[in-house]
Each structure stands twice: as structure tokens, then as C-alpha cells.
Amino acid sequence: MPTAFTEREDHWVLGLHGLTVTRVSVDHCLGLTLDQDWLITVGTPAELLPPSGPARRLDPRTQDVAPALALFGSEVRSAVAAKSGTLRLEFTDGTVLTCPSDPGHEAWQVNGPHRQLVVPTQGGALALWYTDSSGA
Questions:
Q1: Which one-letter DSSP state was computed for residue 66?
Q2: Which of 62, 79, 123, 135 sits at a 20 to 30 Å CA gap from 104?
Q3: pLDDT at 136
């Protein structure tokens, strides 16, 4: 069960390993709901690289996200937020979703069931809110 974020030199490991995409939603953003009440929201252009074939550009601002529907049922292998603001999700089938930071918007966010939140700021740095394993 993911409970904490782990800081590394140039990124944060988001601890979503083993969770499954249980819902893909589209409105003004692309939403990936994971089991255990985690939500990943992408609001600016991103890239989806399937295990075979070319990379696909996703643009949630125009609801151009159809390739992301294939993520339904996918299991997360790793979820990393670079300190530069890029989100990278790798799935067990080899698919990779990458969303860079955006200078004018909060490009993406990861919300957890216990008020965990990771958001890239408009300049690219990360803002994180979470409770560590000691309950602090």
C-alpha cells in the first residue's frame, strides 16, 4: 500500500507501484483513477509511449486523449516526479506516460487518499503535501 513519497537527488518516487488504473475520465483534464483512492490529473499536453509503435501526443485541453483510454486496467510499475516538474508514469506493459511542467499552468497533479498532493508549480518546481510514515 503506497503511503509515502521518497525523495531522491533529482526526483520524488511517488509510491504508486502495483496500483491499477480503475477509471479513465475526460473533461477539461485527463483523469486516471487508481485503486486505493489515488487520482492523477493531467491538464496540459503530455506524451503516451506505447510498448510498440510511435509516441502519441495527448492534449487534455481539447479532449484529444483517446490513446489514454488504453490505460484502463494497467498496473503502475513506477511513478516519478522530477524536481524539474515532469511526471513520468511507467506501466507493467511497457507503456510510459510523461507530462512535463508548464510555465503557465499546473500541468498535472497526484492526489492520495490521505491528503497527499504533488503539483508542479508554474515555474517547474514541485509542491508536495504529505504525512510521513511517523505521522508528522
A1: G
A2: 79
A3: 45
Whether 20 shows a pLDDT value over 90: the answer reads: yes
Query: Residue holding cell 509511449?
Result: 49
Domain extents in the chain? 6-129
- Smallest CA-to-CA distance from 80 within 15, 4, 22, 2 is with 15
The rounded radius of gyration (Å) of the Cα atoms in the chain is: 14
Q: How many CB atoms lie within 10 A of CB 45?
A: 16
Q: How far apart are CA 84 and CA 13, in angstroms?
A: 14
Which position has the grid cell 525523495? 7
SS3 90: strand
* Separation of alpha carbons 48 and 109, rounded Å: 17
Separation in Å, CA 127 to CA 96, 110, 120, 131 = 23, 11, 6, 14
Torsion (CA) 4, 36, 69, 88 in degrees, nearest 10: 0
- Which amino acid, one-letter code, is at 45? P
Supply 54's cell numbers. Answer: 510511435
Do 20 and 93 contact (CB within 8 A), yes or no? no
